[in-house]
Design goal:
The chain is mainly α and 104 residues long. The protein is 53% helix and 4% strand.
Length: 104
């Protein structure tokens, strides 16, 4: 279990770092996430509108904090998986669906 969790944490860390660049959703980030998904590895691409590497807007800071807590609760405590991690949120749904609700 320890090795599996460390792989998940590493993947989450890398995906967060790659999407938090000043260039919005550059090709390398998308290619990296696509490669992980092709290898059947869990990976999520998080992007905040109009934000650079460091999140400055309070709603975006709150959003990433909630998502990190839900991620760790699911993989380390065995909590239910959030909607975002299970089904994802498309760009057309972004802003209408927050994806915080837990799926059993």
């Amino acid at each position: 279990m320890k090795k599996k969790v460390s792989v998940f944490l590493f993947i989450m860390f890398l995906s967060f770092i790659l999407t938090a660049q000043k260039v919005p959703l550059n090709n390398q980030s998308i290619e990296f996430i696509t490669a992980l998904r092709r290898l059947d590895k869990p990976a999520w691409l998080l992007s905040s509108n109009d934000e650079a590497h460091n999140l400055l807007k309070r709603p975006n800071k709150k959003d990433i904090s909630i998502r990190k807590i839900q991620f760790f609760d699911h993989y380390l405590k065995g909590a239910a998986m959030p909607y975002l991690m299970k089904y994802g949120i498309s760009q057309t749904e972004k802003g209408r669906i927050d994806g915080y609700n837990l799926i059993k």
